[in-house]
Amino acid sequence: MMPDLGRYAVEVTSAYLVSLGLLVALALWYVARGRRVRRDLDAFEQKRGKNG
Amino acid sequence: MSSLWEYANPLKFMRTTDWLLPIVAVAAVVVTTTGLIWGFFFTPDDFRQGSTVKIVFLHVPAALMAINAWLMMLVASLVWLIRRHHVSALAARAAAPVGAVMTVIGLITGAVWGQPMWGTWWAWDPRLTSFLILFLFYLGYIAMWSAIDDPDTGADLTAVLCLVGSVFAVLSRYAANFWNQGLHQGASLSVAPGTRMDWAYKAPLYTCMVGFGLIFLALVLTGTRTEIRARRMKALAARERMA
């Protein structure tokens, strides 16, 4: 299934792996930060509600 | 038809992105995966570049988004400066890390392609240099937002930085035309007659460009939602301290 990349196999494969790694890491960071801030805001609003 | 300015209301923005974001995110994954699989597995080697031509499916979309992200930040910053809509300032803030990562991908894939093709990882060529400066502007922009505690002051100062950095965003796009020298070639795609790229490469490249655009949109929407929540929490905490 893997195409024959010839003498540039290392360059092409590493370009794809590094780029995809960066994109996935960026997406995970955005999602994780979003969840953390949402959880913190919910907890804060709940606490404020209880305190009146 | 509803006005675009309605989305300057954080509540309206959150409600709309509640249903829009999942659609954009799924489309981003599907289109990008399709484009990259198409480009990596199903395109022939170039007669001069060999298999390194496959790097173009990462390099061109990433470089395009690096520049377009800054231009989107410029528009959002102008909206903030002129109309003082918080959502636009927060959207600009959310776009910066995405633009920075796109710039890094553009620089890395360019270097990896340049080593076998040009015989060097890096050259102080006008386009490469202006692109590197654009990356430094991204870092400065992100650092400035983090360094300033007051969100309105942060938005004002980063908007000014964004205006200045726009010069390099434009330069990195047109440097090859302005100076007409250096290693980096002109545009890979052109609407002018006699364009140089065959459709065997153009079709997956266009797919990847759309995919990267959707990735950018999905992440900016996600980031803006987070910034709106973070700003609300900060405002509530400040109100509580005052009480």
Automatic annotation (TrEMBL), chain A:
Membrane topology label: Single-pass membrane protein
Signal peptide: none
Transmembrane domains' residue ranges: 12-32
Classification via InterPro entries: Haem_export_protD_CcmD (IPR007078)
Keyword annotations of the record: Cell inner membrane, Cell membrane, Cytochrome c-type biogenesis, Membrane, Transmembrane, Transmembrane helix, Transport
Places the protein is found: Cell inner membrane
Broad class of where this protein is predominantly found: membrane
Role description: Required for the export of heme to the periplasm for the biogenesis of c-type cytochromes.
Record-linked NCBIfam families: cytochro_ccmD
Similarity annotation: Belongs to the CcmD/CycX/HelD family.
The protein, known as: Heme exporter protein D
Species for this entry: Roseinatronobacter domitianus
The encoding gene: ccmD
Automatic annotation (TrEMBL), chain B:
Keywords of this entry: Cell inner membrane, Cell membrane, Cytochrome c-type biogenesis, Membrane, Transmembrane, Transmembrane helix, Transport
Domain of life: Bacteria
Membrane topology per record: Multi-pass membrane protein
Cytochrome c assembly protein domain mapped to chain residues: 5-184
UniProt keyword Transmembrane helix present: yes
Compartments reported by the entry: Cell inner membrane; Membrane
Keyword Translocase attributed: no
InterPro entries named in the record: Cyt_c_assembly, Cyt_c_biogenesis_CcmC, Cyt_c_biogenesis_CcsA/CcmC
Regions crossing the membrane: 20-42, 62-82, 94-116, 128-148, 155-176, 203-224
Family the UniProt entry places it in: Belongs to the CcmC/CycZ/HelC family.
Function: Required for the export of heme to the periplasm for the biogenesis of c-type cytochromes.
Name of the protein this chain belongs to: Heme exporter protein C
Encoding gene (name): ccmC
